[in-house]
User: Fold these one by one.
Assistant:
Number 1:
Amino acid sequence: MTPLDLLRYPTGKFEWSAAQPSIEDRSKALSILKDFPKLLKEEVSSLNESQLQTPYREGGWTVAQVVHHLADSHSHAYLRCKHALLEDTPKIKGYTETDWAEQEDATSSDLSPSLSIIEGIHHRWVSFFNKLSTTQMERTYFHPEGSKEYPLYVVLAIYSWHSKHHLEHIRVLKKSF
């Protein structure tokens, strides 16, 4: 990986697996989702206004934008999961993350609303995934970007990775302060 790739993907890129995860892997992913809100809050609680407005890499989002992005992204993903369970391969609505990250509410140094959203979404999301059978985990939604179906077990893997991915962005930046 190039130095830029290491900054962009400090935990590595997500690797899609077509196979259902083992019970141990599913449990590990759920544990990450469960613990993430607390870990995120701990990482950002000591940051001042200037640090929250610092990008984690040149051309990247600020810490504040990353936190607000997590609230937006994980809210979308949670709702997509519910649609996948309750509908037959629904076509989900995409959104342009960079446009959302530039909105006033996504650049604010007041992280409390987004941290509350993340805490609530993750609590419900973990409960949701814990109750799904193996068959239900195979339910899918269709994402028009890439024209691909996403089984719920892949969504669980993606968002446990996504949580670690952005948490590490913040940790890498904190080391530079």
Number 2:
Amino acid sequence: MQPASPLDRLSGIMQRCRVQAQLHHTGVLCGINHFDAGDGHGYLHVLRRGRLELRHPDAPDLPRSMCFDEPTLLLYPRPVTHRFHNPPTEGADFTCARLHFDGGAQNPVARALPPLIALPLARVPGLHATLDLLFAETDRVRCGQRLVAERLFDVVILQLLRWLLDHPQEAGVRPGLIAGLSDPRLARALIALHAAPGTAWTLARMAAQAGMSRTAFANTFRDLVGQTPADYLTDWRIALVQGRLREGCPVKTLAGEVGYASAAALSRAFTARVGISPREWLRKHQSGSPEMHPP
């Protein structure tokens, strides 16, 4: 018998709910450097050399102060105000990117991650090779430097997500998508939902994908993902609709893509989840107003 093919737990969701990295800084930082949550960005910082004292002045779910003195990766998937306190003269060496997750804080991946992941670089196998390429690009200015660096940041994020899927407890991952994908049975169902959001998914059909009874599937899903399967499916569909609305697709076209019988049915589901209609949401998004999120 042929061994089962390994599950690709990331491609489906990352292709539909993208994260964009923008090179923010490379080089030495001295003294105090402030990163404000009000700017609306997540961040990926790579401490290459030196010592860092990291402070969170107004984040009750994070330590007020943390110290690092070895090469370390710091991922903030959602906006969090944080400050670097580096040595005042010699400083510490960083390569940093701003992060934008499609859908903002309601992106399924961003929502499932802890507010901060701090990992010594040596803990993630294979990461050093990508970082060597990244540092080679950021250490001197060449044609296309920013584009190459940002693509390499994307690879770093994927490698980190791979590690998290295999070490959810060690990373402090809370109930959500990452925890669900870390369970081989739920992963099969989640991959199917991500690949075919327009399918008429029933609890029985989702449970069959996982190879579980309906009751066991529903209970395990709620415990690990933190939602019922139906609620997760609705949130996934709405996140996809938001992305496609930004691309200019009309609601009438999107309804069938995500499993609704009509544009009116999709609009009702969208409004119930987000609090405003698709048209109002798109207008607010295009005007730069803060996004409305599901309750």
